[in-house]
Amino acid sequence: MVTLASLWVPILVAAVLVFLTSSAVHMVLRYHARDYAKLPNEDGVRAALRQGNPEPRQYVIPYAGSMKEMGTPEMKQKYAEGPVAVLTLRRPGPFSMEPALAQWFGFTLVVSVFVAYVASRTLDPGAPFAQVFRVTATVAWLGYAGGAVPQSIWMGRPWSTTAKDVFDGLLYGIVTGLAFGWRW
Predict the structure, then answer these.
(1) Residue 164 — pLDDT band, cuts 50, 70, 90?
(2) Is the pLDDT score of 30 beyond 90?
(3) What's the total number of domains in the chain?
């Protein structure tokens, strides 16, 4: 059996390759550039939100506290009139990329550790490159892309954005599979 500790090199290499691939996706290829749009009345929406002084968290508009309330004529009217939204509010202040990038790299390490765990339990020492690639790329793809789909199902996120995230996950799975196949 392959030990998890013996896979520290492909874990680290995969995390770095995914980080670099994601940087290329967002800074060079830029096909995510249109995933978000500006509201036509952004200043008015910002002023209304500031006036309500909501805490940083996730909100739904319109809000129903129960399934029973969701079925009331008043709530049905609110849904019909719109807007219907899921809104995430962050803490006020300047946005800094450094903490987000550090968290993203930490996530790539966590995914790589889980990929290594699954591979160490399912693949024999000396397994052929193609077999190692197939298992590790698949597990990584699920780790990077699987969470995107429920956002479209439940939160109304555009399926086009989710499709791009699933494609990104495929790219990340491929580079992860290459790293593990190379160093198995």
Answers:
(1) very high
(2) yes
(3) 1
Q: What is the extent of the structural domain holding 147?
A: 5-37+95-183
Is residue 58 a contact partner of residue 86, using CB atoms and an 8 Å limit?
yes
pTM, rounded to two decimals: 0.92
Containing H/E element for 59?
strand 58-61
Domain annotation covers residue 171: yes
CA gap 22, 3 in Å, rounded: 28
Sequence-distant (≥ 6) Cβ neighbours of residue 115 within 8 angstroms: 11, 14, 136, 139, 140, 143, 176, 180
Asked if the structure places residue 16 within a domain, the reply is: yes
Residue-wise pLDDT tens digits, 123-133: 999 999 999 99
Taking the C-alpha atoms of residue 66 and residue 50, their distance in angstroms, rounded to an integer, is 27
**Integer Cα distance of 174 and 17 in angstroms:** 10
**Nearest residue to 143 via CA among 106, 169, 109:** 169
